[in-house]
Amino acid sequence: MLLTRASPTFLPSTSAASPSPQAPPAPIFGRSHRRGVVQLVSSCSPVAGQRSGSAARRSVMAAAGAVPAAKLEDADALIDSVETFIFDCDGVIWKGDKLIDGVPETLDMLRSKGKRLVFVTNNSTKSRKQYGKKFETLGLNVNEEEIFASSFAAAAYLQSIDFPKDKKVYVIGEDGILKELELAGFQYLGGPSDGDKKIELKPGFYMEHDKDVGAVVVGFDRYFNYYKVQYGTLCIRENPGCLFIATNRDAVTHLTDAQEWAGGGSMVGAILGSTKQEPLVVGKPSTFMMDYLAKKFGITTSQICMVGDRLDTDILFGQNGGCKTLLVLSGVTSVQMLQSPDNSIQPDFYTNQISDFLTLKAATV
Predict the structure, then answer these.
(1) Rounded distance, CA 19 to CA 93, Å?
(2) Is 329 within the bounds of a domain?
(3) Which entry of 83, 144, 180, 238 is annotated as an active-site residue?
(4) What H or E segment, with its residue span, contains residue 253?
(5) 235 in helix, strand or coil?
(6) Distance between CA atoms of 281 and 244, rounded to whole angstroms?
(7) Is 146 a catalytic residue?
(8) Domain membership of residue 331 as a residue range
(9) Using omega within 30 degrees of 0 as the cis cutoff, is the peptide bond preceding 27 cis?
(10) Which residues contact 114 (CB under 8 A, 6 or more apart)?
């Protein structure tokens, strides 16, 4: 088993595997995100009295049970307090195919201080090997063993539940998922090859599907179409025990550095809408990858700092796993979004980008 512990809020239940039309969909987590975040933040945020913010905002956050994030001022203190840094990629290391300023120097500095670096991305379009090539192309020396993509998480999850090798996986997604499933020894169909398939909706048309499909994995898919929606829906609704697995539910992604693009959550949402079944999410903010990493490297989560640009995936991922959390404003989240009274997801610290580790370090010397 790859999991370090069985999480009742993550692993599929009997009802999730074989839903009835009358049964309500099972939630991704055992409690609501908002309530869960409030509980987690209130139990691990140590400097409520020192953090800035308007009196009205503090009042709202206090009523919700959360503590406003502190702006990172002493980088050395944070660096010295943890053993491992987990970095999100899109919006933290790069945007699209453009490296964010100061990243190489920052990673080199952290390595020189003996810190373990891990890169976790919800983007499932590439395998770990393919991401390794992207890091190399951008001039970054990152080992494949340090990379954990949600494409890999999907295959690792199926291994962790001893998914039968005689069953097949239908993939709504791109090449990264196919490569990881193949490496794990699973049979699959779908993926980019179904991108040009169309359904001729003529009277009496009946669409066949493979009855041996035991799981449908949905990730970001630039070749998404109605054929895939229908095929995945048939497998989930008609194949007994067929799992619905999502690599992530990100609303937006960085396909280019020019603007935000609809993310994998839009593809997952289409299948959820047609099946009325909630997916099992293996990417952030699910704790599956955190459990896997903690076991693989033999570290406690209190010695980890999660660095990301998204509140509802990266920061929640770190908080759900019991880690320190640092939000960077180089991606999708602005300081206005962070400080909005409607936001209850508060990291321990926030800063502009990870290269602030260098400038803030210099300022404290």
Answers:
(1) 40
(2) yes
(3) 83
(4) strand 252-253
(5) helix
(6) 9
(7) no
(8) 33-122+285-363
(9) no
(10) none
